[in-house]
């Protein structure tokens, strides 16, 4: 591994730094963006049970708010329910927007790494080829060791840049897709709560199902 890094030259170090940052983001987002952590399946059923049995109080709302991102959205809706449907819905949407923004944390950085890693690899390739041509000018084409060193730098940095960029791009798309799916689930539950509280539909979620 050390030989590989040395052969790639100075450009290898920022590429390695990018790989460490990308790996940290991927592991952290895989842990955070679990569907059952953000939008627990039985949460709506629990909330409806509290409302139906007149058990909803400040303690229950705090418990709900601390439970999950969806819990914070629903707790905001319940706290604003007395102000009417429109105010409740607006509060729910504002909180959901904030939670969705938090779910996308670090993804811009991951996308940036996916974009710049191949460019850094290309920069290393250019440096390597410059070394090759300088060696040809100064020593002729007969010094195979010098030529091999320049060509190695050119190829290793390109390979390293792609090795970092491909998984970074994959997981960036993967996380964006997962956030979209979770956002739909959160929106469905939040709107369902608004409709149920204000009597626009019968409760359809006592079993925790999604519409």
Account of the protein in words:
By secondary structure, this protein is an all-alpha fold. The chain has one domain. The chain is 80% helix and 0% strand. It contains nine helices and no strands.
Supply the number of structural domains.
Answer: 1
The N- and C-terminal alpha carbons lie at a distance of: 52 Å
Strand content: under 5%
Helical residue percent? over 70%
Helix/strand/pairing category: mainly alpha
Summary tags:
9 helices
Topology of this structure?
Elements (H helix, E strand, L loop, with lengths): L1 H7 L3 H21 L2 H4 L4 H10 L5 H10 L1 H11 L5 H19 L3 H33 L4 H54 L14
What's a quick, concise take on this entry?
This protein is an all-alpha fold and 211 residues long. It is 80% helix and 0% strand.
């Amino acid at each position: 591994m050390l030989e590989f890094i040395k052969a790639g030259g100075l450009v290898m170090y920022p590429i390695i730094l990018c790989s460490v940052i990308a790996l940290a983001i991927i592991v952290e987002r895989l842990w955070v963006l679990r569907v059952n952590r953000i939008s627990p399946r039985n949460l709506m059923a629990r909330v409806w049970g509290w409302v139906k049995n007149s058990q909803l109080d400040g303690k229950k709302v705090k418990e709900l708010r601390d439970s999950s991102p969806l819990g914070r959205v629903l707790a905001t809706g319940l706290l604003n329910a007395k102000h009417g449907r429109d105010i409740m819905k607006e509060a729910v949407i504002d909180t959901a927007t904030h939670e969705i923004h938090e779910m996308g944390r670090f993804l811009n950085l991951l996308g940036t790494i996916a974009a710049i890693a191949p460019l850094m690899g290309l920069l290393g390739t250019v440096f390597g080829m410059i070394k090759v041509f300088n060696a040809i000018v100064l020593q002729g084409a007969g010094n195979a060791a010098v030529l091999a060193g320049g060509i190695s730098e050119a190829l290793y940095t390109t390979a390293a840049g792609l090795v970092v960029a491909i998984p970074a791009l994959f997981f960036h798309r993967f996380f964006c897709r997962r956030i979209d799916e979770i956002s739909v689930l959160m929106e469905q539950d939040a709107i369902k709560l608004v409709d149920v509280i204000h009597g626009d539909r019968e409760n359809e979620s006592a079993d925790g199902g999604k519409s």
